[in-house]
Each structure stands twice: as structure tokens, then as C-alpha cells.
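Practice problem 4.
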């Protein structure tokens, strides 16, 4: 059962986003990016209070993803990326992106905080950042 509303076009878009942002980090890296995207739809807080669909989340501007804003969101989604996108749409979470709303690729180590969110860990090239449960309870299922 899906934790956010979706249609097949949005599966394709999410899969393309996951590929564009984290293909170099392998399947788990792409799943983590997918977790962030789904969390942003679920969040209803911070910069994501009016994000109510996967498509709106993917193309959010400002505050959206670098891939869609800087032009490397052009590759089609392959079946593997679509399969991974469906996993995160079903609510399967992967650490350190389980509850993350942000990630980025720093040139060095991960900062303790980013946009007021706490570092939840790093996977390969990306650092992930989570809100507190009290500021964004919907991300945590509340």
C-alpha cells in the first residue's frame, strides 16, 4: 500500500529523479534519495507544507532538487529505477534517509546541521538531514 498518492507518470518522474541525483551511489543511494522525496510529500511542514504530490515535490522551486533545476534530469528511468521508486512509495525506508528531508553532496565531511536539520548520517557521497519529530511529525508517521 502506498504512503503517498501516485500515478504511473509520477513513478517515472521519481525514478528519473533518483537516477539523476544518485545513480553513482548505486541502488541504495537511489533508494535514499527516494526516501527524501516521499518524506517531503508526507511532511506537511517547513518548506514542504504545500507539497501534496510527487510531481509537485520533484519540480518544487525554490527549494527543490538540483537535478531538475540544473538540467541533468533528462535520462529516462529504467525498469530498475522504477522498481526502486515503487519501494519507497510503498513506505519502505532506508537509513540514513528514513526520515530525512534534505541531502547534499559536500566536498568534505558532513556538517552537524544543514537548513536547521540534524545530520542522520552519510551514504557514499551524500549526507542526510532529518527534522525533529516535534517539528515534522508526519515524516515520522504521526
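Answer key:
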Amino acid at each position: 500500500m502506498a504512503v503517498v498518492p501516485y500515478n504511473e507518470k509520477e513513478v517515472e518522474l521519481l525514478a528519473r529523479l533518483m537516477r539523476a541525483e544518485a545513480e553513482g551511489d548505486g541502488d541504495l543511494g537511489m533508494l535514499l534519495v527516494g526516501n527524501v522525496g516521499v518524506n517531503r510529500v508526507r511532511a506537511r511542514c517547513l518548506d514542504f507544507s504545500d507539497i501534496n504530490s510527487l510531481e509537485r515535490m520533484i519540480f518544487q522551486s525554490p527549494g527543490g532538487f538540483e537535478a531538475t533545476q540544473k538540467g541533468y534530469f533528462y535520462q529516462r528511468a529504467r525498469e530498475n529505477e522504477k522498481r526502486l521508486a515503487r519501494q519507497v512509495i510503498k513506505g519502505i525506508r532506508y537509513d540514513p534517509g528514513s526520515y530525512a528531508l534534505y541531502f547534499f553532496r559536500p566536498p568534505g565531511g558532513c556538517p552537524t546541521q544543514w537548513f536547521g536539520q540534524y545530520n542522520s548520517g552519510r551514504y557514499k557521497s551524500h549526507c542526510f538531514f532529518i527534522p525533529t519529530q516535534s517539528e515534522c511529525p508526519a515524516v515520522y508517521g504521526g
